[in-house]
Amino acid sequence: MEWDWSAVGDFMPQFWDGLLVTLQALALGSLISFVLGLVWALLMRAPSRFVRWPVGVVTEFVRNTPLLVQLFFLFYVLPEWGVTLSALATGVIGIGLHYSTYTMQVYRAGIEAVPPGQWEAATALNLPRVRTWQVVILPQAIRRVVPALGNYVISMLKDTPMLMVITVLEMLGQARLFAQEHFQFTEPLTVIGVAFIVISYLASLLLRSLERRLVR
Amino acid sequence: MTSGLWELVFKGIWTTVQLLFFSAILAAAVSFVVGVLRTHRLWIVRFLAGFYTEVFRGTSALVMIFWVFFVLPPAFGWQLVPMWAGTLALGLTYGAYGSEIVRGALKAVDPAQQEGGIALSFTPWQRMRLILLPQAVPEMIPPFSNLLVELLKGTALVSVMGMGDLAFSGNLVRLALQESAGIYTYLLLIYFVIAFLLTRLMRGLEKKLKAGVGKEPTREVKVPEPVGGGV
């Protein structure tokens, strides 16, 4: 195997572009998954089973089917329905929706872990329902689940290369482009492979320190 | 959809099932070997096994697949059949996740069991085989069940390399029909059914194994471990 350092140098500008897109997709995807996951988790606590049942079925379905096919679905079917979005926006929605079905379970566990005394105290203080959620339950629940949510951000990072299939030029997309132009596969693919390991390692260190501060 | 196109889809299902089967076997083998080695008494063995886990968990499955398809052949001068390349990439990646499950389950066995084995002067291998694994394996089944579904979802990635699995056949059908809502809905449903069957299968296996050590199966799997979370 011959390793060509000059190819690495040539790839670098494209690598930074790809990294930027990857991080953008990651940030937006995380945001969507955090918000949607919370929405699902709250809907699953709705009093009516006509709300709980469909939400349960839909999220179970999304969680158990491949993100890749979901991305194809969004990318090719949404335009047929008259919704045109950019590739990146489609990808971000796809990844956010997919992971929201995971974060919803994290939130659920967090909400269930709030001691019943907190609910009773809120009732005793005559707090309205919305206030109870806002100032008593959610702050405690979310604090507990931050590390678990962070783990999903890391797994989301590792799923961002899938956005390549819907023409988003994130890291893997850039690497493939470079490889096809220069006919050098080894260097760009290895560079991004190492980049993924480094980023996820740094993120997990960050997460561990966050965990120490939040969960006591 | 015509019957010819359906045939294409069925071929895709067959390829996906085959790939799932082979990579699940490889992943299980890797998980047990690496997971057990991570409890080895020599630090260098533990370190190497841990290093393997960090590297393969740290990178993305799709990048891994690209690497196996494009970097390995020129580096070593041999080319793998797509099925084996896919099996290798998926098996090694998901095996790294699985090794964490094995390690966790081994650690969760009551230490008194280990000590009992030492007191009876069992060799380390006997302790592993006769005491630790029979108690740890049933506990591994629920997380392994989640991982198996993740692996099923992972098999769709090989379609990017042009391997004729279910997702790939879906793309062909879309090109043939110039219409995507129908075929992708079918694809998602088929994947969902396979995932459902796998979960049922694992539930049955858990029941059987736990009956063997006198335990009740867990009623519901709570939060699935984030696959690929953390390093």
Automatic annotation (TrEMBL), chain A:
Membrane-spanning ranges: 20-43, 81-99, 191-210
Subcellular location: Cell membrane
Keyword match Transport: yes
GO terms of molecular function: transmembrane transporter activity
Domain of life: Bacteria
GO terms under cellular component: ATP-binding cassette (ABC) transporter complex
GO biological process, one term: amino acid transport
UniProt-listed InterPro entries: AA_ABC_transptr_permease_3TM, ArtM/GltK/GlnP/TcyL/YhdX-like, Ectoine_EhuD, MetI-like, MetI-like_sf
PROSITE patterns on file: ABC_TM1
Entry membrane topology: Multi-pass membrane protein
Pfam families: BPD_transp_1
Principal location: membrane
Similarity comment: Belongs to the binding-protein-dependent transport system permease family.
Family matches, as NCBIfam families: ectoine_ehuD, HEQRo_perm_3TM
Record protein name field: Ectoine/hydroxyectoine ABC transporter permease subunit EhuD
Organism from which the protein derives: Streptomyces pseudovenezuelae
UniProtKB/TrEMBL annotation, chain B:
Lineage top rank: taxon: Bacteria
Gene that encodes it: ehuC
UniProt xrefs under PROSITE patterns: ABC_TM1
GO cellular component: ATP-binding cassette (ABC) transporter complex
Domain ABC transmembrane type-1: 13-202
UniProt family annotation: Belongs to the binding-protein-dependent transport system permease family.
Taxonomic lineage from the root: Bacteria, Bacillati, Actinomycetota, Actinomycetes, Kitasatosporales
Pfam name, any one: BPD_transp_1
Name of the protein in question: Ectoine/hydroxyectoine ABC transporter permease subunit EhuC
Localization per record: Cell membrane
Species assigned in the record: Streptomyces pseudovenezuelae
